[in-house]
Amino acid sequence: MSSTKQRVCVIGSGNWGSAVGKIVAQNVQNFPDLFEQEVRQWVFEEDYNGEKLTEVINREHENVKYLKGIKLPHNIVAVPDVVEASKGANVLVFVLPHQFVRGVCEKMKGHVAHDARAISLIKGLDILPEGITLFSEEIGRILDINCAALSGANIADEVAQEKFCETTIGCRSVEDGETFFKLFHTPYFRVNVVRDYVGVELCGALKNVVAVGAGLSDGLKYGSNTKAAIIRRGLMEMRKFGKTFFGGVESETFFESCGVADLITTCSGGRNRKVAEAFVTSGKPIDVLEQEMLNGQKLQGTLTAAEVHEFLTARKMVDEFPLFNTVYRVIYEGAHPESIVRDI
Ligand SMILES: NC(=O)C1=CN([C@@H]2O[C@H](COP(=O)(O)OP(=O)(O)OC[C@H]3O[C@@H](n4cnc5c(N)ncnc54)[C@H](O)[C@@H]3O)[C@@H](O)[C@H]2O)C=CC1
Ligand SMILES: O=C(CO)COP(=O)(O)O
């Protein structure tokens, strides 16, 4: 008799991927009738002190490179081949830096269970000059499955330490929303499910650009009032971008964890903020700082700033988004960091 239990696979194993893998692997244990107990996690294979990272993770039950010091449940298994990892999975959790999503999905194409559904935890947008796509839609299109989105004020290290926070799931299907709630909700990681998946995803992507602006301000030692102004302006541009280029984005979504709360946390404790601050204080290029400061973790805000800029330029609308534009010009065109207050 074939099992009706859901098999879960986590695609990605960086800083957030590892923290989320821990939650998911713990939660399937609360629903043994609903979920298979083994959770597979696709790990981009790399060398770690002369060993394969997957082997170290499976032996130590810890992602020693991307989430050091946090023990993972024993029912999560690191697998280096994405097709093998996702074989037979009914629930796919995508949690990758956005620049790698397309390539990974192309490898999975044709190998995914026909009844699978997915959720994207990716904070970025698939932007080309000719158009803009949400990653939930792009994943859904390439793999021919439904895909929801999860985004919130969720700095991975704090979530992994089980410090209280909230998150937002945007999902069109009520039934899928219930499954994802069971998979992610915990007393310390509180899930709210909304229907506006577009707004949820847009917030997660665009707040990273604002966080780069906040980091520039910190590098200039401008203080809390300036940062609050950048956050407020950023929130306005995020909403305007959503309302201009996407139908159905609801203003209420910006008051969920994925909106203003994520802006606040990323602009105080995030990697985008930290590296942008160092960009001002060190004078080094952003890609050099990313390598020096993040030990393999990836920035999303600077890349998104460039992608948004290209998209707005193609529409002659750059001037309508002065904060996004200024972040781009400071990071990539040598504009003085002070522009972050002068030009917005
Ligand atoms: N770290 C955090 O606090 C949070 C991150 N996010 C978002 O989650 C997404 C994933 O972020 P993290 O898990 O933190 O990743 P990360 O920033 O730790 O990125 C490193 C990951 O990328 C993988 N990688 C490197 N080269 C690759 C390649 N060529 N192909 C595929 N994978 C490759 C690495 O193996 C590693 O797993 C991002 O969009 C991020 O914005 C969302 C909430 C919190
Ligand atoms: O998205 C995040 C917190 O919600 C993490 O932001 P950073 O990528 O800037 O660390």
TrEMBL record:
Keyword Oxidoreductase: yes
Any Gene Ontology CC annotation: nucleus
Keyword DNA damage: no
PROSITE patterns found in the cross-reference section: NAD_G3PDH
Reaction catalysed by this enzyme: sn-glycerol 3-phosphate + NAD(+) = dihydroxyacetone phosphate + NADH + H(+)
InterPro entries reported in the protein's UniProt record: 6-PGluconate_DH-like_C_sf, 6PGD_dom2, G3P_DH_NAD-dep, G3P_DH_NAD-dep_C, G3P_DH_NAD-dep_euk, G3P_DH_NAD-dep_N, NAD(P)-bd_dom_sf
Positions contributing to NAD(+) binding: G12, S13, G14, N15, W16, G17, F44, F100, A156, R271, K298, Q300
Molecular functions per Gene Ontology: glycerol-3-phosphate dehydrogenase (NAD+) activity; NAD binding; protein homodimerization activity
Positions with a binding annotation for substrate: K123, R271, N272
Keywords: NAD, Oxidoreductase
Catalytic residue list: K207 (proton acceptor)
EC number: 1.1.1.8
Annotated coiled-coil segments of the chain: none
All residue ranges annotated as the Glycerol-3-phosphate dehydrogenase NAD-dependent C-terminal domain in the record: 196-341
Pfam families (UniProt xref): NAD_Gly3P_dh_C, NAD_Gly3P_dh_N
Biological processes annotated in GO: carbohydrate metabolic process; glycerol-3-phosphate catabolic process
Domain Glycerol-3-phosphate dehydrogenase NAD-dependent N-terminal: 8-173
Family statement drawn from the similarity comment of this UniProt entry: Belongs to the NAD-dependent glycerol-3-phosphate dehydrogenase family.
Name of the protein this chain belongs to: Glycerol-3-phosphate dehydrogenase [NAD(+)]
Organism of provenance: Umbelopsis ramanniana AG
